[in-house]
Amino acid sequence: MPIAIDACAAQHQGDRKEQQDRVAILPHTRKKGIALAVVADGMGGHTGGALAAEQVIHTARNNLDHFAPADESPQVMLENSMREAHTMIKASRFINEKDPHSTAVMLLLQPGKVTWAHCGDSRLYRFKGNKLVSRTVDHSYVEHLLATGRITAEQALTHPNRNVLLTSLGGQDEPKFDFAEAESFAGGDAFVLCSDGLWAYFDDEEMAGVIAENSARNACEILIERARNRGRGAGDNISLAIIKLVEVEAPKVVPPVGFVPRPKN
């Protein structure tokens, strides 16, 4: 059965004075069936974080426009997008005297293949129906403690250093990137990219259920509303992009008017 894409990008400023997140779903300007989803969570004082996150989107858009699947691998395109954004964010320090940084999570959708990459603690979730298949592992101090068994998952939720990142775009050190890819997927699969202003309020099961039971747009609205309520007046910026693969019926072939089928011998 043919597969259609149901996608939506959404964000909310939360209770912050400024929206420093950026989110976009970008179609390739020349190649049908190719699109790039991006979420960037900026940090760095007034306007600095917003400029950093905007640079991530700008660089990703430029690299997507020049992406030629026959000549460049998806992973190389994603890595170049993040590495170039890192360089430009670092350079902006000398212009605006700020200390801008940004996370990044990107998903490149092509016919028969999905590739993603991330830097920092903005996440990508992959669901099949209402079940989690995988999610990215945050480049954060708390995730490191969790992976080494020094704290539990419950302790990670309230750890005082849960916002400390081990890598980001625009920092003094070279950023760390992680990549993954899927070539087998079907209707009912879904991908979610989001900043910590969203995922901090949900476990995997609840998020999967909301996405499986709703359109991409309705799921965005529900998740943002719940995150806002749970933030209790102290919520962070929220950004997310949802890409659902939906099975659709193949169009029926209607014979032209006056067509008379030949009798079989």
Automatic annotation (TrEMBL):
CDD domains, per database record: PP2Cc
Superkingdom assignment: Bacteria
InterPro entries xref list: PP2C, PPM-type-like_dom_sf, PPM-type_phosphatase-like_dom
Matches recorded under SMART domains: PP2C_SIG, PP2Cc
Residues in PPM-type phosphatase domain copies: 6-245
Gene3D superfamilies in the record: PPM-type phosphatase domain
GO molecular function: protein serine/threonine phosphatase activity
Protein name: Serine/threonine protein phosphatase
Upper classification of the organism: Bacteria, Pseudomonadati, Pseudomonadota, Betaproteobacteria, Rhodocyclales
